[in-house]
User: Fold this.
Amino acid sequence: MNKKIPLNLVIMMLLMALFSNKAVSQPVNPNASEEAKRLLAYIGQFSGGKLLAGQHSYCNDLQRPLDSVLAITGKRPALWGSDLMGYDHGSEDTRQEVITEAIKHHKSGKIITLMYHMVKPWHHDRKSYALSVKGRVTDEQWEKVIDPTTEEHAQWLGKIDHIAMYLKQLRDMDIPVLWRPFHEMNGNWFWYGDRKGEDGIQKLWKQMYDRYVNYHHLNNLIWVWNPNAPREDAFAYEMYYPGNDYVDILAADIYANDYKQSHHDGLLDLGNGKPIAIGECGELPTKKVLREQPQWAWFMCWVGHAWGKENRRKVKRLYRSKKVVTLGEL
Assistant:
């Protein structure tokens, strides 16, 4: 359904294009909704300037992380994230609660990002995290998952089709979503992890993209490719990258205060001008990190890291920084 864009938004986007040193980003989905286009353009303006504050909430503990950030900082995050998880707490009721919460936060002005800790295709969603999400698969099993003629691929398709039904609720309410599936795919801890090359995670990513864009018409999704920052058990970005035709934003998960310059610069080189972000983090970036790595468009603190004793001072300091945009400043 075509919608008339308000004149003030048209002017805003034109001014951003004229006066920013970066062109307004265009979604990789040619049929992206106007809301998705505007959100991607908005996020694109943060690279090299300010960055958005974000907070993740577990799907079975949706409110406490936000309450804790507010209690510590007196402010609310601009970006809210959660998980349509497929293990332990991945019941239908819980997934619907996440969607309901996403709608509430969108109405309050927050930007929404969602992920999906997907279980192995042949596992029931109620199996354990250690067995179903983190358990490895054999090379033979992997080849069957990416082969459209197999039962294993049909099982995988059934799972992502089911998740699409929840995402459609947001689409039908014109809510854009920063969608980051298969996160930390360059690590060796998830069942889909460390599958290099064209027949690795690149293929599975493209298959999901095709299904969601061309079959389900989830035109509200902004596609966020989100590896882990390279380390001993997480490998070079480029071996897992599906290409600029399938990715809107590149992000890295950074834990253990591992803010290497190469983690930032490598994403910039790979994305060739696309926005980059800190998809998840434990310890928050310092002012020094943000000064040396200015292109991060947002950070998202992972659940309880914000209120740990050793991190509270950093959270408060960062939220009060002139560089950080919170909900009240959106």
